[in-house]
Specification:
The chain is of the alpha/beta class. The protein is built from eleven helices and five strands, in the order ααααααβββαβαβααα. The protein has three domains: 39 residues, no CATH class; 46 residues; 161 residues, Nucleotidyltransferase, domain 5 (2-Layer Sandwich). The protein is 43% helix and 11% strand. The longest helix has 20 residues. It is flat, with a radius of gyration of 31 Å.
Length: 308
């Protein structure tokens, strides 16, 4: 308001200077009180006149009793039954009554546990859901790990493991004959050795290969282990996209050998090409190695500036 008065009461100039809309400015000017700045605080948008319920107490109780008798039936079915009993009630009114019953706690929904599919909870001694505040701004803050089936030859099924750092897109890939907790624990040592930076957290799905020995190995090595909620592969989108890249640019283009050691050797060469030679669109067409070195250089400059 001081700026507004000092510049000829020019509302447009004031709005441009402070980056606000004219509607906001005029609303604040109407509320402004020089000796009570609380007048500028947001106010309730609740209407002065609120629609009051028009149903009777008897109808209210009838809806409650019928819903308790048929817990899975909604307003449409209950409305039909109530009208058959002589009540003059619309479907929308039944819906409003059900909403009020839920808001006041008078109506509790029936549990949705399905006895046909018995619930078998599995206790994870170390893995947790990734906290909302977990930062992923530096290399190694979060590495997504997942497996995929590959069939290089008829009758031969192998398990491909991929680990991708979400910041640098640095990948570590390996192939095993089976996906067990023991092989996953071995892959953990592989990715920790091949990634050029320390790994703070790993995110996996709920597969059995990421339990037991793998979970113990993460705890022993001081690596946080985050497990995804059920049926949510999109939350591991970086490594899911990595699977596609390795499938299209390696497995579909080379003559795969019938020997697991030879395949591992070829896959190791592809990993080196991917991290050190292949430009990555998400990194501004830098390689993961170049992006990581650029990150180190920026950190060094920042620390130098702080010292000066």
């Amino acid at each position: 308001m001081d700026y507004y008065r000092a510049h000829g009461s020019n509302a447009s100039l004031t709005c441009r200077y402070f980056g606000i809309s004219r509607q906001t400015f005029y609303r604040w000017r109407r509320r402004y009180h020089a000796h009570n700045l609380r007048s500028l605080e947001d106010r309730s948008c609740r209407p002065r006149r609120v629609r009051q319920p028009t149903w009777s107490l008897d109808l209210y109780q009838a809806v409650l009793q019928m819903r308790q008798q048929f817990p899975r039936w909604g307003k449409d079915k209950l409305g039909v039954l109530l009208r058959q009993q002589g009540w003059q009630v619309s479907t929308s009114m039944v819906g409003r009554i059900l909403k009020r019953l839920k808001e006041t706690g008078q109506l509790r929904e029936a549990p949705r546990l399905d006895p046909w599919l018995p619930h078998r909870p599995f206790w994870r001694p170390y893995a947790i859901r990734k906290p909302r505040g977990w930062a992923t701004s530096s290399p190694g803050d979060l590495v997504e790990v997942d497996t995929a089936d590959i069939r290089p030859l008829p009758g031969l099924a192998l398990k491909h493991f991929t680990a991708r750092d979400v910041v640098t897109r640095w990948d570590v890939v390996e192939v095993y004959s089976r996906a067990t907790a023991k092989t996953a624990a071995g892959f953990l040592d592989t990715l920790l050795a091949r990634m050029p930076f320390p790994v703070k957290g790993i995110q996996v799905d709920g597969g059995s290969e990421f339990m037991a020995q793998f979970e113990t190995a993460c705890k022993e090595r001081g690596v946080k282990l985050f497990v995804l909620p059920p049926r949510s592969p999109k939350l591991n989108g970086h490594v899911e996209r990595a699977h596609r890249t390795h499938r299209e640019e390696f497995y579909q283009l080379v003559d795969l050998p019938d020997s697991l050691p030879k395949l591992r050797q070829m896959l190791r060469g592809w990993e080196e090409v991917y991290n050190s030679y292949r430009p990555h669109q998400a990194l501004g067409y830098l390689t993961p190695k170049q992006f990581y070195h650029q990150h180190l250089a920026q950190q060094s400059l920042a620390k130098g500036g702080m010292c000066h």
